[in-house]
Automatic annotation (TrEMBL):
The keyword Hydrolase does not apply. This is Toxin-antitoxin system YwqK family antitoxin. Residues 1-19 form the signal peptide. It comes from Flavivirga aquimarina. It comes from the Bacteria. Keywords: Signal. InterPro entries: MORN_2.
Amino acid sequence: MKKGILTLFILFVYNLSFSQTINQFDKEGKRHGIWKKTFEGTNILRYEGAFSHGKEIGLFKFYKNIRKKAVLTASKQFNENDNKAYVKFFSSRGKLISEGQMDGKSYVGEWKYYQKTSENLLTLEHYNDKGNLEGERLVYYPNGQIAEKQNYINGELNGVSIWYSVNNVVLKEFIYVNGELHGISKIYNSKGELIVEGQYKQGKKHGIWKYYEGGTIVEEKDFTPKGKFKKKN
């Protein structure tokens, strides 16, 4: 009986030791099992996670060396099927800064960025499979009101971009084509009254620009080649 108990105890210790073995390689020289690395010349943890024959799996945690302490700076949740991981970035105080999916080193899909002083959204972005901005990008005020609304196609601004006041008043409306200002542009005051309008052509002001006060044109400027500045009385 005692011999049986002793055998079980020895097996338990052996299994415990084996389960805690880290930084191992498989027969092909690939990282396998739990890995932990420290900052050079210290015992301060730099990252920890698990590999399956060279492939990251499960949750990885990454740290910064701040005042000789390991402070969590990012986490990546891997799977065994591809190179994608769900990633979170943290401030030195542990607050979530941003989160989304990465494919290798490229951002893909939806990414969320948060306000510095709250858990409210700061920016909402979308990326295509190439890691370029795609579709609508939104920027928010701390109160949740939209501050900017833009549209991207394969990493370049395209379509109407709108800026809002904290009270949801439209302040600017610009049109972009392939990353350049191109088309009608309008600027409003905090009351939503039009104060400037004109055209952009391939990133430069073009044609007649009109300037308003109280709904009345007070000045016009001609930005066509060799155009002359005009002022209305």
